Amino acid sequence: MIDRLNIAIVGAGIGGLSAALALRARGMNVTVFEEAQSPREAGAGISIPPNAAILLKRAGLCEAIEKITTRSQGLTLRTSRGEPVPRPSATPTVPSYQIHRVEFLEMLLGAWAGTVRFGHRCVAVNDVGSGARLTFADGAVCDADVVIGADGIHSIVRREIGLTASPTSEGIVAYRGLVQTPKTVVGRRLARLEHVDGRRS
Ligand SMILES: Cc1cc2nc3c(=O)[nH]c(=O)nc-3n(C[C@H](O)[C@H](O)[C@H](O)COP(=O)(O)OP(=O)(O)OC[C@H]3O[C@@H](n4cnc5c(N)ncnc54)[C@H](O)[C@@H]3O)c2cc1C
């Protein structure tokens, strides 16, 4: 049994950095490889539901999150006609958050403060008996006890371990946007998010 595994994570997105922080909290030696030359995240907000908040709390990140977001008062799902979709009424004991993606990634990077090797595009993963070898586009290689593929929907790591299924579209379209927090305040200083189901029925 190896106490301190050398773990290589491919992809410095939200998934890769969250995994890096969680593994380091367990005493693992982690290096993250990212194909972009610098951090990148686009888009709008992201919901952090209670199950994800529990994991981030375990990695010691709740205080950092609360500095850049507000706790969510709740989530209401509505049909295209505006009718609320009934949900179980249990009050969550763990908070959930709405957070800007760029700020979330910056917070994860700041908390990580470990090695992220930018400009490393993984092109191959090979079994070398004692572990795995990553090969990068510039010819560099890295051996690790464990490799984690967090390289997104078109994952090279997934392809390299023989999982060839392609993502399939469900035909669902999402519109993303940002609303200033003061405009979402309902009475108290807490944001409430509403998801509207835009499918025609
Ligand atoms: C409209 C929309 C709304 C969503 N809302 C939510 C939400 O509210 N809550 C929630 O939890 N999830 C939400 N999701 C899902 C969530 O956004 C994704 O699951 C998450 O962003 C995926 O993160 P990731 O780090 O796994 O992948 P990515 O963000 O895709 O990151 C992959 C990283 O790997 C790098 N990379 C790729 N290939 C290589 C390579 N060969 N070598 C090295 N690096 C590589 C990329 O440059 C990138 O930095 C939403 C998704 C969509 C589309």
Task: Describe what you observe in this structure.
- The chain has 201 residues and is α/β, with parallel strands linked by helices.
- The protein has a single domain (6-196), classed as FAD/NAD(P)-binding domain, CATH 3.50.50.60.
- The chain has six helices and eleven strands.
- The chain has helices at 14-25, 50-58, 62-68, 101-112, 156-160, 181-184, and strands spanning 6-10, 29-33, 45-48, 70-78, 97-100, 116-117, 122-127, 132-136, 141-144, 146-149, 191-196.
- The strands form three sheets. A four-stranded parallel beta sheet has the order 6-2-1-10.
- A hairpin with a 4-residue loop joins strand 8 (132-136) and strand 9.
- Helix 1 (14-25) packs parallel to helix 4 (101-112).
- The longest helix has 12 residues, at 14-25.
- The radius of gyration is 20 Å and the shape is globular.
- The relative contact order is 0.23.
- It binds flavin-adenine dinucleotide.
- Flavin-adenine dinucleotide binds next to helix 1 and strand 3.
- Flavin-adenine dinucleotide binds at residues 10-16, 33-36, 46-47, 121-122, 150-152, 156, 174, 176.
